[in-house]
């Protein structure tokens, strides 16, 4: 036994060495995403459904001889993704502009935990991705009617920022005139339906989903602030330094998903709907070719400038401390790839008829209404642009002003202001607008 022991020990150490080598040859990439935040789908839901990341990493493995494994983690907001990145448990994450800044601030507190912003996912340059909705039967007509009421929002999110900015612009103190309750989007949506809160200030796709289902109506469109809102992708710097090829593979896969969405918007909407449980009509409202979201991974200067403007608000609520934006934004990895230019079509509206695999475009709001009225077909959804802000919204949920044509607005306050400013005009409901077209 004594003579056999050195041989057994050598065999054991050899086995351990082989096992350790095999383990070190496996690279795991943990991706944190928000499946229902559908302007991040090119770095999350659609990317996962299409398998582009796994395909790119498999091709990389053939070149490097390493094995790459992807682990997907789904969250409702950006805050838990940041917490997991600080803990070193998520390598790449996608989130909105406000959470991006909180991510930068929190991770810069730790030498090994720093993150870099490496791409955008989707944006709306006016801010229409954040909205405030109220129950369908609410008597509130403007934000001023929420004084003394309870508003659900996810503290530190882009939806929360829009809500606070909008209230302040309306002369309402968000700290004393209303009660803002910190809730995840799904919890807030349930609270709104149950009457536990009077309004919900959230990001995509919650406002559209609630309004489409007839459970809420739009009170305030974030586009009124005319401030860009967007989502982006962050990576742990330590992971990127150790696995730069894997990060490049992720960005290339994001480009694959972006190209697919822009080339096949209806199919992409159906895939995202199937993966999330969201209504396809709602997904298409945001992710269609003329939808509320522009999908472009480029870190545009106007988007970075918007981040700079967001910092004072986050400081005021204690969301960020020290923050060096210049060391956070890193366009380098994406610049090494070929990013196609984004070309968005332009039409005044679209109709999605039942049974159709594509929409029919309309040249004007009147033409859209005539198309619906005269088709004799069942309509799954009709989309039209707000007259003032250009925000695409559901035609049957819009407020229409009749007078020298028909003019759609996504909020009642906008429609009434327009009618007042144009003598002889009047606000009409959707059935009346159909008849008048």
From TrEMBL:
It comes from the Bacteria. SUPFAM superfamilies: NosL/MerB-like, Periplasmic binding protein-like II. Gene3D superfamilies: Periplasmic binding protein-like II (3.40.190.10). Keywords: Signal. Pfam families: NMT1. Residues 1-21 form the signal peptide. Residues 128-268 form the SsuA/THI5-like domain. This is NitT/TauT family transport system substrate-binding protein. It comes from Kutzneria buriramensis.
């Amino acid at each position: 036994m004594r003579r056999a022991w050195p041989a057994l020990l050598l065999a054991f150490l050899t086995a351990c060495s082989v096992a350790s080598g095999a383990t070190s040859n496996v690279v795991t990439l943990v991706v944190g995403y928000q499946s229902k935040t559908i302007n991040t789908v090119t770095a999350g839901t659609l990317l996962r459904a299409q398998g582009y990341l796994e395909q790119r990493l498999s091709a990389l493995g053939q070149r490097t001889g390493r094995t790459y494994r992807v682990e997907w983690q789904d969250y409702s907001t950006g805050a838990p993704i940041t917490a997991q990145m600080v803990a070193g448990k998520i390598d790449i994450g996608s989130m909105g502009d406000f959470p991006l800044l909180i991510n930068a601030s929190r991770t810069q507190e730790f030498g090994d935990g720093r993150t870099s912003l490496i791409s955008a996912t989707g944006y709306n340059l006016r801010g229409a991705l954040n909205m405030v909705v109220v129950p369908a039967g609410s008597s509130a007509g403007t934000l001023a009617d929420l004084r003394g009421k309870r508003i659900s929002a996810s503290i530190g999110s882009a939806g929360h920022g829009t809500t606070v900015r909008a209230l302040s612009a309306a002369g309402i103190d968000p700290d004393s005139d209303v009660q803002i309750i910190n809730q995840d989007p799904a919890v807030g949506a349930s609270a709104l339906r149950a009457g536990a809160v009077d309004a919900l200030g959230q990001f995509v796709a919650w406002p559209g989903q609630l309004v489409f289902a007839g459970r809420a109506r739009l009170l305030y469109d974030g586009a009124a602030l005319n401030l860009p809102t967007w989502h982006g992708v962050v990576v742990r710097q330590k992971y990127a330094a150790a696995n730069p090829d894997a990060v490049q593979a992720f960005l290339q896969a994001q480009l694959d998903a972006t190209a697919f969405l822009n080339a096949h918007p209806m199919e992409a909407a159906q895939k995202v709907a199937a993966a999330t449980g969201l209504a396809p009509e709602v997904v298409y409202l945001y992710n269609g070719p003329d939808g509320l979201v522009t999908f472009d991974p480029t870190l545009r200067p106007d988007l970075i400038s918007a981040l700079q403007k967001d910092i004072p608000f986050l400081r005021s609520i204690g969301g960020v401390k020290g923050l060096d934006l210049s060391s956070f934004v890193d366009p380098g990895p994406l610049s090494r790839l070929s990013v196609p230019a984004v070309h968005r079509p332009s039409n005044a509206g679209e109709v999605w008829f039942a049974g159709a695999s594509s929409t029919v475009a309309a040249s004007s709001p009147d033409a859209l209404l005539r198309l619906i009225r005269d088709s004799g077909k069942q309509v799954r959804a009709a989309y039209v642009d707000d007259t003032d802000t250009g925000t695409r919204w559901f035609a049957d949920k819009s407020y229409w002003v009749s007078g020298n044509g028909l003019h759609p607005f996504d909020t009642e306050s906008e429609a009434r202001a327009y009618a007042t400013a144009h003598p002889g005009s009047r606000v009409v409901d959707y059935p009346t607008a159909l008849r008048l077209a």
